[in-house]
Specification:
By secondary structure, the protein is α+β, with helices and mostly antiparallel strands. The chain has helices spanning 6-22, 28-35, 86-89, 103-114, 143-158, and strands spanning 42-46, 63-70, 94-100, 126-130, 133-137. The longest helix has 17 residues, at 6-22.
Length: 161
């Protein structure tokens, strides 16, 4: 049996609290910074009220920020995804990070997205709640690719630097 010292336990608890703070309504700039350098994630752009396709930015129960990104693993031509930036391509082009003020709001959005799971034209891809953040990935990625990108984004968001 491995013995863990009080100091190690205390540090692990402090780290856990700090990580939790990082995924509790993080700033747009924090998320943009953390998306830099993640494999297969590029062109991360934050929406504003004029180009927010979901119309949820800064509304009650809506997100406090949404950052769309593209992925070089998505074949945009084969999947008829329009040309343009990551916001114009939407989640289909790679994915999106949606940040909510509360965990309850994030869970409600995740439940809503779950209604579209299972394929078809309206499938929204994968989605995972981490704190008050939802990490979404394109339906045009394989399950393994979705999982890898989600894990890499989650690890970047909680990394203590």
């Amino acid at each position: 049996m491995e013995v863990v010292s009080f100091g190690e336990t205390k540090k692990a608890m402090k780290d856990s609290i700090a990580q939790r703070k990082q995924v509790t309504n993080p700033s747009e700039s924090f998320v943009l910074e953390r998306l830099n350098g993640i494999p297969n994630v590029s062109q991360a752009l934050a929406v504003n009220e004029e180009n927010d396709v979901n119309g949820m930015l800064h509304k009650d129960g809506g997100y406090t920020s949404a950052i769309f990104f593209t992925s070089d693993l998505v074949d945009t031509a084969a999947n008829y995804i329009e040309d343009g930036d990551s916001i114009e391509k939407g989640t289909d082009g790679g994915g999106c990070i949606e940040v909510f003020e509360t965990e309850e709001d994030a869970q409600k959005r995740d439940t809503y997205l779950s209604a579209f799971d299972g394929g078809g034209m309206l499938c929204s891809g994968s989605h995972k709640v981490v704190g008050t953040v939802i990490i979404r990935t394109s339906n045009y990625l394989t399950a393994t690719q979705q999982n890898d990108i989600t894990t890499n984004i989650m690890n970047s968001l909680i990394a203590l630097k």
